[in-house]
Design a protein that fits this description.
4-stranded antiparallel beta sheet, 10 strands
């Protein structure tokens, strides 16, 4: 499904060099020579990367390596923090999203984000699911029965419907943390995003909640490209198809997850996954 991110269309050269070897599978996100500074501090340095469509890609590395910063580049949420300078190119949906004609509002509709700690709004479960749609006027003027159907379909997809169908008017903050995180994912679905970004989505959950969210992430890969930041290397091995190891703002290694963990090509990667630093 092609989505127009632009306020006015312009043509840009095609990407010539990519960090990964050529793949037959379509690419969802491409970066080229991407660098980012917070003031005078350089958080990303010349990041060139391919993220393939329809798979789960995990970003791993020690604290401060730049993985969350990179994730936030993909919907330009870093710009909310001020004093941020970004150079290079990020191509999503065949468009460099750093171009001045790109609408960040439209971009964030197409590239959804799930944060480290669940952030349901202090309104009803029902209204939480429709909140993004209301902001983007995605379902403006539709009937109540259609809105009910949208809510039900989103909650069914995240395996939450049976638990909450009789209390949709209840305040969402009364849900368990696991249910809140599922609700935050459900809130994205009516917007029909192409890509879902997840910043340590299980860090606030217990083992049972983590397992359920990981199972949900696995199901989401059938419809979306998923990029997940995690400090949990066991989770990266379980939940992702490809893995990117970052260190000091640079991509050190990007390979199929099993290959990266079993036969790392870079000594720095091997040292990290063996727990020798980080």
């Amino acid at each position: 499904m092609a989505v127009d991110l632009m306020e006015s269309k312009t043509q840009k050269p095609e990407v010539e060099t990519l960090v990964t070897e050529p793949q037959t599978q379509e690419v969802s996100i491409t970066t080229r020579d991407l660098s980012l500074w917070y003031g005078d501090f350089q958080a990303l340095e010349n990041v060139t990367l391919n993220i393939r469509k329809g798979i789960i890609t995990s970003l791993i590395g020690p604290s401060g390596c730049g993985k969350t910063t990179l994730l936030r580049c993909f919907n330009r949420i870093n710009e909310r923090y001020g004093n941020v300078t970004t150079t290079g190119e990020i191509r999503i949906l065949d468009k460099n999203i750093l171009d001045p004609d790109v609408s960040t509002r439209q971009l964030r509709k197409s590239v959804g984000m799930v944060f480290q700690r669940p952030n349901p709004l202090p309104i009803s479960i029902y209204d939480n699911v429709l909140f993004g749609s209301n902001i983007h006027a995605a379902h403006k003027g539709i009937s109540r029965s259609v809105r009910d159907q949208i809510v039900e379909e989103a909650l069914v997809e995240v395996d939450l419907w049976d638990s909450v169908k009789d209390r949709l008017k209840q305040r969402a903050t009364w849900l368990t943390l696991e249910q809140q995180q599922k609700l935050c994912i459900a809130r994205l679905l009516p917007l029909k995003p192409e890509i879902i970004l997840m910043d340590e989505p299980c860090s606030a959950l217990d083992a049972e909640g983590t397992e359920k969210i990981e199972n949900l992430i696995e199901r989401l890969r059938e419809e979306f490209t998923v990029v997940i930041v995690t400090h949990n290397m066991a989770q990266a091995r379980r939940a992702s198809d490809e893995c990117v190891f970052m260190l000091l703002g640079e991509i050190i290694e990007h390979r199929p997850t099993a290959d990266l963990f079993m036969t790392p090509e870079n000594e720095k990667t091997e040292m990290y996954i063996q727990g020798r630093y980080g």
